[in-house]
Amino acid sequence: MKKLLLIAAIILLISSCSKDDYIPIESDLDTELLNVLDEASNGIGTSFFMLPESNDYVSIPQDPLNPITEEKVVLGKLLLHETATGGNPKIIEMKATYSCASCHQAAAGFAAGVRQGIGECGIGFGIRGEERVADTSVPRDSIDVQPIKSPTLLNVAYQDVMLWNGQFGGTGTNAGTEASWTEIQENFLGFQGVEVQAIKGQKVHRLQIDDEFVNTFGYKELFDAAFPDVVESERYTKRTGALAIAAYERTLLANKSPWQNWLKGNNESLTDTEKKGAIAFFGKGKCYECHTGPALNDKGFYSFGMGDFDNVNGALLLYDVNIDKVKRGRGGFTNNPVDDFKFKTPTLYNLIDSRFYGHGGTFTSIKDVISYKNEGVPQSTEVPLENLAPQFGTIQLTAEEIDNMTSFIANSLRDPELTRYVPESINSGNCFPNNDNVSRIDLGCD
């Protein structure tokens, strides 16, 4: 009888442990990683680093003046990719050939696939934007090329200011910088950086969202749904278009990466090498001092002495860009020498997709960036030593730790499903994210 009872108990135990009830046993590496995360989060633990679901609007940081709604997200998703927004070009033949996504493609981790993002007068795309080049047959001042690496749109909800120098945004981090807003009057509207960039960027990048655009390309009903409380005379404008784009951008979260899966309890989503890399990242490397929270960034500005577009061959500089001001980073905006050569902390998700690293795109390897910070020898000779971040050259990682950390950043932080954020088509029927003749061929539109 005892034997029968034992067999019955075993059968009951096996049947109760269904696949859905399976709880993976933590390895020593998992336990060690949990411990360093607990310390890095001041006792909060894994939840401190978790990204919300993209449709969990309540949990996504948002601008109180621009609450996220499904209708705004639907509209913004289309507008960011809509090449018909390229309606205010310097060269008429370039009309409707570019979009916001020309420099922020999902295939490149919502950054540009090239060192310098190119809007108007850019041609070609390749597979993930890596073959986009400037049209050299047009005047140099007609090319909308960026003087600094196009930052990713991933996880921008966790920033209250935008651009490498943080100049866009009229609240929070930029409180007290009002004297520097002369050329950024949009900051006085009181919006956060994501919204300000979407407004300001339309003029800077020669985009056109207005009543004519809305009616010509069939966006009226979408604007009506997204902004029912805005009077019709103000409903179809660059401001409402920008607010829709910003709402959509806030939902661009890398929440399907292996790292996020591990944080949710799937211990098998990371390899042992990646777990060791995470332990080095949040432990000895102290990377969490800048790269923290769900987006692995913060709201600070730091100098690591990285190079700029003017000191590496191949950069295309425009005549009307003050490159010295660009190089000064935060200091170029605030005019405070203490801020010189300091740049905003970027998120680290999907870096492997973007191919270029640093504000000047002077690195093409994640491992090289880690090694560079470990060694502490600045690329730029212009940065005063007192302005360099205290973390630069002081962490003393071993070669193995660098390799492990590289694996963690490159693989664990890569969300492989970013195409879920891309529309199947846009209202104009144009090719996107670019609509020039070469891009149309690359993208299979012709």
UniProtKB/TrEMBL annotation:
Listed GO cellular component terms? cell envelope
Q: Which InterPro entries does its entry note?
A: Cyt_c-like_dom_sf, Cytochrome_c_Peroxidase/MauG, Di-haem_cyt_c_peroxidsae
Do the record's keywords include Oxidoreductase? yes
- Outline the extent of the Di-haem cytochrome c peroxidase domain: 70-267
Give this protein's Gene Ontology molecular function annotations: cytochrome-c peroxidase activity; electron transfer activity; heme binding
One family from Pfam that matches here is CCP_MauG
The places in or outside the cell where this protein is found are: Cell envelope
Q: Does the keyword DNA-binding apply?
A: no
**What domain of life is recorded for the organism?**
Bacteria
For this UniProt record, the keywords arranged alphabetically read as follows: Oxidoreductase, Peroxidase, Signal
Residues annotated as signal peptide: 1-19
**PANTHER family with a match to the protein in the record:** CYTOCHROME C PEROXIDASE-RELATED
Q: What is this protein called?
A: Cytochrome c peroxidase
Name the species this protein comes from: Aquimarina amphilecti
Organism taxonomic ancestry = Bacteria, Pseudomonadati, Bacteroidota, Flavobacteriia, Flavobacteriales
